[in-house]
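To make this tangible, this section ends with a sequence with its structure tokens:
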Amino acid sequence: MYTKLIKWFAQTRVGGWMFLHVFDKIDKPLMRLTNARLSTGIGTALSKNAILLTCTGAKSGVERDVALLCTPSGDDIVLVASRAGHANHPGWYYNLKAHPHCVVRFRGKKFACVAKEATGAQREELWKLATEQYPGYDTYAARTARVIPVMLLVAAP
């Protein structure tokens, strides 16, 4: 019941804003401290798949941390650049496009990855996988005129 309530709230405009602007501020230090074992979604399915992504700023070249919901896909990680249905892509998307090498903290582990944008059939497959975990992505897609990018993070060799 609690998980359903959190997922419903996250899909609302207010909930999306809260996750982007409030919970993110709490999650970054909490996830750094716990190596992404804990997040503000404690006790929900959302917390189980929360990551802390460290990427390099597209323009600034400065490392940035962002707490995100991810979808595991085998050994890879799927990220949906929804920004809660906002009209523009999130900053981390542009950062990964400019500098695909990144670091992920996930479930107590920290590892290097390389990001690539999924396209075509691969994007559709990963979108379906992500929306099975969190149906809110479909709500966000309906809220915006843009095509929401899907990024695939593959462990760096």
